[in-house]
Amino acid sequence: MLDWDDLRFFLTLARHGSLSAAARVLHVSQSTVGRRLNTLEATLSVRLLNRTPEGYVLTLAGEEVREKAERLEAEALALERDVTGRDTRLRGLVRVTCAETMAAHLLAPSFAALHARHPDIMVELIPNPRELSLAMREADISVRMRRPEQHDLVVRRIGGIAFGLYATKAYIEERGEPDFENGCPDHHLITQMEDNLEMTQSAWLTEMASRSRVVLQTSSHEAAVLASANNGGLACVARFRGDGEPRLIRLEVPTEPPSADILLLVHKDNRDTPRIRTVLTHVTESIQALARVLQPPIANEVDVQAVGV
């Protein structure tokens, strides 16, 4: 008889393509994932996944099994959401996923206050640049900066993040002030890779500094901040990080970089579960309390407020 857990391990490996990635999602060792796959293949007497230099790839039999397993998974998750939605207790696990910098600097510091008010709610904070599936219960709540591709989600804008262009004083002394009219020749750029949520800001940067050379691409916002802070080049990063990094100075630019929305996502079947609703409210209030840090006024706005206009 098939073991549902074996199918669950197979689906995770098929989706993520490597033993290490699947092990992280499942919170087990790589050897456990491999053993579960071997058990399932032995039970079915067929190979489901082929290992290639690019990762695990489904065989034709694997494609057929995955299609059927996903239907079973969807039914099981729908049942779980239905039962969970009737849970009126403020206790249990709530998984929250977001980008690395947001997890470390915005959400993690706020959760001590949540625990003080609701000691029976445990938060699992999952920093991940990839959009985890709320429908498949990889997470219960997601905090992101772009609209999701997933269906059946409730999406709410809870704030915004301003960006700026930064470098170190030593870097500017060595390379000179950026000449934006001429595309900033002789400068180095630190940009975001395709899967990161700062791609709009990176596009702005490469357009403003079209004659500069990209010396580092990264999917980590925090890596971009630290690379620039160590004299690596010009980086367009969130104001709350750039302004808070003592080694960085914010540069004047002809046009401000585009800002980003902060979006709160939850599956429609889970939004009224009390413990999830409680964490949703907490995250919303925490982000909104940081509004002036996340979107500080630009210089001319400060001057207007100072004279009481």
From TrEMBL:
Keywords: DNA-binding, Transcription, Transcription regulation. Pfam families: HTH_1, LysR_substrate. It comes from the Bacteria. Residues 2-59 form the HTH lysR-type domain. One of its GO terms (molecular function) is DNA binding. InterPro entries: LysR-type_TF_proteobact-type (IPR058163), LysR_HTH_N (IPR000847), LysR_subst-bd (IPR005119), WH-like_DNA-bd_sf (IPR036388), WH_DNA-bd_sf (IPR036390). PROSITE patterns: HTH_LYSR. Belongs to the LysR transcriptional regulatory family. This is DNA-binding transcriptional LysR family regulator. It comes from Methylobacterium persicinum.
